[in-house]
C-alpha cells in the first residue's frame, strides 16, 4: 500500500506510466484499437482496475471496457462549447455535421457487420428528409462534404473500418466512387450511451449531473464533502482556469485546500498553480487538446494582445481603465441551455409525470436599484466601486493593438493576416475567451485575472533562412 488516497496499488516505478494512462483517458474519453493510436488501449488495460477505482473516487467518472473499446463516462456539471468535434482538416462541426453524425450512429446501430458508403448515405438521407431544414442530397457539394466529415470522424475512431474503396472517391463522385466498411459494433455502442431516454428529456440540463449531494440538505456531511471535492477536481482537469468566484462555496473551499493539488499531482503528474482569484493545472506534457500559449499566428497574436491588455490595465500614465461586473455565470449557462433547448424535437417528446423543467426563471431587466449585469442596451454597467469588477478593453483598443502587433513583427505574420487584421483580432480574442483570459461583452472584452500571468512576457522574432516565426 502506498499510503496515498489515489494510485494506492501503483508502485513508484510504475507511477509515471500510470499517470500517463490517467491523462490519456481524461484527454480521450473514447479509446479504441487505433484511436488515438495503437498503444493507447494496451496502456489503459494495463491499469484497468486502478483506473476504474481512481476515476470514480476522484471525479465521479465511470470507466467502461468492452471488447477493443474503453469509454470514460463523464459527470458533467455544466454545458460547454469549447471542445467541438472536428473534421480531419480541423474544421469544427456545425449543426449539419452533428446531425449527420447522429443519424449515422442511428443507422449503424441497426446495421449488420458491413455497410457500403452509398447505403449509409441513402439511409441517412431518408432520415434527414424527415427533419425540417436538414435533408441530405449527395448531388449537392455542401451536403456531401458535411456527410463525409461525419463519416470520417467515425472512421478515425474505429467505428467504421475500411474494407474496400475510399470515402474520398465517393466524395469526389458519388456516382462512381464507393467504399465498403466493417462496422465495429462495440465502438458504435460505446459512442452512443445516453444517460437518459432522449424522448423523456425536456431540457438539455437533464443530461447534467443530478446527484446534488453538495447542495442537498438531506445528504450527509461526508457525502456533500465528497461531491464538492469531486466537482473541484473535475473543474480543474476540464477547464483551462477555475475562478473561485464562479463556483459554489463548498467547491471553492476544496480548491483553496491543500489536498487538491496533492491529489491531482498523484493522479496526473501535473502541478496546480493557485492564485488569489483561482487555480489552473499547468500543462507541461501536452495534456490538453489545445494549449495556450500555442503555436501559429492566432495563438501568437493572442499572447501579444494579452500583454497589451495587461500593460494597459497597470499603466499609471494613461486614463484609468473602466471596470464593469463580469457576466453572471448562471445567466450565461441559462442562456446557452435555452438556445440548445430551442432545437428539441417536441413532436417526439414523451414527458414523465414526475419531471419538471430544470431551468431557472428568466432573468428580468434590472430596475433603477439593480446594479448587476448589463443595462437595458446589453452594455456592462460602469461601476468603479465594489469587488469583482473587471477591466474593460474596447474593440477599438484591441484592433489598434492588433494593427501595432502586425507592424511591429512584420513578416512573422503572413500576408493574409496583414490583409485582414480584423479577422486576426477576432480569432485571437475568441482564443483568449476559450481559455478564460477574457469575457466577450458588447463593445469589447472584460480582462480576467489570467491575463496578468502574461504581463511580463517578452516576444522576439527568431530569424531563419525561411519565413520567420514569432515566439512568445
UniProtKB/TrEMBL annotation:
> Region Disordered: start and end of each range?
345-393
Per the UniProt record, one Pfam family is DUF2398
Name of this protein: DUF2398 family protein
Q: Which organism is it from?
A: Natronosporangium hydrolyticum
